[in-house]
Structure to design on (587 residues):
């Protein structure tokens, strides 16, 4: 159950964190960034679930996903608060 | 570990995916089987002979049918080759997306009383007949299918290729079904991944939209949609009444301004109000992203938003491409036929996966016997029951009188009750081969019933449709007959233990 939660729930949070980061940091303009981000959300979630089941231990999954999500969210929040959201 | 993920995921979403793929295979022909479902369309003349639409007259016809009820929105769609009728979708405080249709002379062809079976199958495909909850459930099932496909490839890729095209019937039933699962699964991977991704994308997109709206626009979804160009212009109602006579001129101007685009319909919001807005739907019928839409304030003629079919903005390209890929509406009848066959092949992949899982568990005495029994019997009854229910649903549009009360509810009940009844029939104390034989015979009879009901009701038998060039009507009958044949062969082979 712990692995299922880590893979599916952690994977979902990563599938939000990475696209959000991409929407804010990619250089393709707002629309282009959103397209790239949205299109990648489900593949990211899928990959995270698969990795969650191949990883040697559940702790590694929680740690890996937790650290990546924290870094990505922190960078996104910092960008939003410091520079705001550019819709150009 | 990965094998557990693949197996359990498959088992967990088996029934949802079976319902989605079986109903989805038929839903591909949504709008293309109208002349079979609504035989009065056959008497309508060739689409090339129809005059230009008289829009004020058509709107007057709609108002006549809804006299005494307030209308706030009217969608009107023009005749097509497969559906020679004006189709109106009407909304209001007491009207929820009621559909009526008119013929070439404005005569009423169908009312909200006359639903089409394929609409019910499409609702099952998209929302599992459960409204908004069903949308997310179907989306999550599609996502799990993506995970199942990728995990299947990860598990098997080393030993998959050397044995890919062997169908080893003689070794054991389990080996045979595993080979079927692998051959159809691997050769169908591009289609299955595409359809699972686009399906999950449609149904789960809203979740990401809400999160992005919260993170980037403090929860203002309209601001997010405006930023990506998907906003829909809206005006407050003034409550000053307005007639839509000027719409004909706007329609003509629109046709002249974009001659390469085909206008296939329009929708008026704030209907009858001074602030009424018309949205024209266009298509240049070229390639995957070919849709256009134009919002125009009717009273002033001001264009509020124009998105031509040539618009190659990233968001429009993405949405048009995903819609086109999922529905296969970019390449004509052959593409649809290919999608149909691939969807049914996916049903076989899912069923063979269940057979392999069951034979493995029963052989190694893994899992609880009652769960294996439940899975085997329910999958059997559920799948064959859905085929029977779909065929009876098709037959119902020719068996039920047009003026019977609650016709739509009766049709839905016929579908649901027969599906449920057949699912429970699978628990009768027969051997599973006898059960498959019996249910297959019932399914074959149901398919024949649909063909016979259509033939007796309309006198449009298979040969009549073929000789008069009504190929859409012909292929519905032909498909039902082919299914009947497949079910008869399945029954025979199961009875004589060949599968």
């Amino acid at each position: 159950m712990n692995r299922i939660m880590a893979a599916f729930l952690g994977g979902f949070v990563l599938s939000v964190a990475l696209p959000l980061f991409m929407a804010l940091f990619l250089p393709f303009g707002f629309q282009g960034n959103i397209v790239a981000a949205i299109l990648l959300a489900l593949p990211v979630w899928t990959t995270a679930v698969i990795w969650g089941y191949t990883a040697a231990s559940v702790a590694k999954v929680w740690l890996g996903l937790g650290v990546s999500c924290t870094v990505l969210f922190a960078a996104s929040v910092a960008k939003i608060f410091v520079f705001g959201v550019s819709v150009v | 570990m990965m094998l557990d993920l693949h197996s359990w995921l498959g088992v967990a979403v088996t029934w949802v995916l079976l319902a989605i793929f079986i109903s989805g295979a038929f839903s591909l022909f949504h709008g293309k089987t109208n002349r079979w479902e609504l035989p009065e369309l056959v008497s309508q003349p060739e689409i090339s002979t129809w005059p230009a639409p008289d829009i004020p007259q058509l709107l007057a016809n709609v108002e006549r049918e809804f006299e005494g009820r307030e209308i706030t929105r009217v969608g009107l769609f023009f005749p097509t080759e497969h559906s020679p009728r004006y189709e109106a979708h009407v909304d209001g405080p007491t009207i929820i997306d009621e559909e009526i249709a008119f013929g070439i002379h404005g005569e009423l062809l169908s009312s909200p009383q006359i639903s089409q079976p394929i609409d019910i199958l499409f609702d099952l495909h998209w929302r599992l007949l459960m409204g908004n909850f069903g949308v997310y459930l179907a989306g999550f099932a599609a996502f799990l299918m993506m995970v199942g496909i990728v995990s299947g490839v990860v598990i098997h890729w080393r030993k998959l290729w050397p044995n890919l095209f062997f169908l080893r019937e003689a070794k054991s039933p389990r080996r045979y079904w595993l080979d079927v699962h692998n051959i159809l699964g691997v050769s169908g991977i591009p289609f299955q991944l595409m359809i699972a991704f686009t399906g999950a994308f449609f149904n789960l997109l809203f979740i990401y939209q809400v999160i992005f709206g919260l993170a980037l626009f403090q929860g203002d979804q309209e601001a997010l949609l405006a930023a990506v160009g998907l906003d829909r212009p809206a005006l407050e109602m003034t409550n000053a009444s307005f007639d839509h006579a000027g719409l004909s001129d706007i329609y003509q101007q629109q046709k002249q301004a974009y001659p390469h685009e085909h206008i296939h319909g329009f929708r008026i919001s704030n209907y009858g109000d001074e602030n009424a807005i018309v949205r024209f739907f266009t298509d240049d019928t070229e390639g995957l992203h070919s849709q256009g839409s134009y919002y125009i304030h009717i009273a002033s003629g001001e264009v509020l938003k124009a998105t031509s079919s040539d618009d190659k903005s990233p968001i429009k390209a993405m949405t048009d491409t995903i819609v086109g890929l999922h529905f296969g509406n970019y390449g004509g009848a052959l593409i649809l036929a290919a999608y149909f066959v691939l969807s049914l092949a996916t049903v076989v992949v899912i069923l063979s996966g269940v057979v392999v899982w069951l034979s493995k568990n029963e052989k190694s005495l893994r899992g609880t016997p009652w769960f294996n029994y439940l899975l085997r019997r329910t999958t059997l009854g559920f799948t064959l029951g859905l085929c029977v229910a779909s065929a009876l649903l098709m037959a119902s549009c020719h068996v039920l009188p047009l003026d019977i009360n609650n016709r739509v509810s009766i049709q839905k009940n016929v579908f649901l009750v027969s599906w449920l009844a057949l699912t429970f029939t699978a628990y009768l104390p027969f051997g599973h081969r006898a059960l498959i034989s019996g249910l297959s015979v019932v399914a074959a009879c149901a398919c024949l019933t649909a063909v016979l009901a259509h033939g007796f009701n309309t006198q449009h038998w298979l040969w009549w449709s073929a000789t008069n060039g009504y190929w859409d009507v012909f292929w519905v009958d032909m498909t039902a007959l082919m299914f009947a044949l497949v079910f008869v062969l399945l029954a025979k082979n199961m009875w004589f233990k060949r599968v």
